[in-house]
């Protein structure tokens, strides 16, 4: 059995989307050995810091929140699809997605772009490939429960705040109750295209999202 950690390390200076609603990670030591004789820390982080899930509430007013998402939805068999050969800013069409999946929609889709290799660059947020709205709707219509990726989002990076279309893929997926896991790392270390995916978010009351420890188990 092989276990691969797909989660970012939470540390000061880590890349975070630069807007006031995404705070930078902070870690402050409070308890000290030799003084309080124990070590404790205060941490500051956002609900979308590092590897995290988006709950429906993130974009859907009145949508479900993190603590109420069933663990059975988050954890289980997942299909890994390698999109790492796609060019920057490529839009994955419904036909391309269906071809990659042989027209068989998985309960959980893990999309590999190897985009974590772009961490700590400006391109990380601006140049990643993304899914078309039709591709996301096909996932919804065919029963997908979760999509996980090593990019910051499933949406066109040009469709950001202030654009005519603000995160339409988030709204399609989250509006149908499909959970999104973002900022994965090291998907390329997996040897199988079918894995047992474990997604363990912090249990935050009324959480619109939460940092997660995410890992893959391969037999």
Automatic annotation (TrEMBL):
Per its UniProt record, what Pfam families does this chain match?
Cyclase (PF04199)
In Gene Ontology terms, what is a biological process of this protein? L-tryptophan catabolic process to kynurenine
Write out the coiled-coil annotation as residue ranges.
none
GO function term, MF aspect, one: arylformamidase activity
Q: Which PANTHER family match?
A: CYCLASE-LIKE PROTEIN 2
Q: What is this protein called?
A: Cyclase family protein
What is the native source organism of this protein? Salinivibrio kushneri
């Amino acid at each position: 059995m092989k276990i691969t950690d797909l989660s970012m390390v939470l540390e000061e200076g880590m890349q975070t989307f630069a807007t006031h609603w995404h705070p930078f990670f902070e870690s402050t030591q409070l308890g000290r050995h030799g003084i309080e004789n124990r070590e404790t820390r205060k941490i500051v982080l956002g609900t979308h810091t590092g590897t995290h899930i988006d709950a429906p509430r993130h974009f859907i007013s009145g949508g479900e929140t993190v603590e109420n998402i069933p663990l059975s939805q988050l954890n289980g068999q997942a299909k890994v699809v390698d999109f790492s050969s796609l060019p920057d800013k490529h839009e994955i069409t419904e036909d391309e997605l269906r071809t990659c999946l042989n027209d068989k929609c998985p309960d959980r889709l893990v999309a590999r772009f190897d985009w974590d290799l772009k961490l700590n660059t400006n391109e990380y947020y601006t140049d990643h490939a993304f899914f078309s709205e039709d591709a996301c709707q096909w996932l919804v219509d065919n029963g997908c429960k979760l999509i996980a990726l090593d990019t910051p989002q499933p949406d066109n990076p040009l469709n950001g705040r202030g654009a005519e279309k603000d995160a339409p893929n988030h709204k399609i997926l989250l509006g149908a109750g499909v959970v999104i896991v973002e900022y994965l790392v090291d998907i390329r270390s997996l040897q199988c295209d079918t894995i047992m995916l474990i997604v363990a978010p912090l249990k935050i009351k009324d959480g619109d999202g939460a940092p997660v420890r995410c890992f893959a188990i391969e037999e």
